[in-house]
Structure prediction request, 204 residues.
Amino acid sequence: MFLGQVVGTVVAPVTIPILEGQTLLLVRPVTPDGSPTGRTRVAIDRAQAGVGDRVLVLDEGNGGRQIFGDPMGAVKTIVVGVVDYVETDAGRVYDAASPTPR
Amino acid sequence: MYLARVTGRLVASVRYPGLEGVALQWIQPVDEAGEPMGAQLVACAAIRCGPGDLVQFVDGREAALACPETFVPVDAAVVGFVEEAASHAGVLRQRGLERGAR
Prediction:
């Protein structure tokens, strides 16, 4: 799993069947202190996340298929949690209760 | 999954069994601003799409699961036709990027 920042939403009216009706979010991987790292992804939202949220993202298919209960589902990138805070040895580097402006 | 722009199509008449009839597209992964992100690649099309279209694709084992025959050597598949992708960078649509729309 990786830490991500929800930066936008995606509307896709034509998809493969398993993605129909799913909320899609644009998620940018970030370091614990919020610096962008890695490539922006399209993720399926299973945690009621929204733009601006710091989230936990699964980017692996087997766990995704368990979430969907479909052993042959072509799902991979899924938002599975909304992060409250992140602590490292530098202290609390992110706190959703007092977010820094983007 | 990632956002991508379809840049062309590819025809290969000799294929691994199971891939007959699967459309192959050249795609350029893009970020939330529509800027190229990494190298172009060839993806199987699990939905109808063509050059110029904004799409989403899945990579890895899940790409094969999106194909009609699921045990095939495929590592990227277009799984959705994206109408719009909205972020702080603007609204990415089928035709270019409208900046400052949000």
Residues 2-95 of chain A form a domain with the OB fold (Dihydrolipoamide Acetyltransferase, E2P) fold (CATH 2.40.50.220). Chain A has one domain: 2-95.
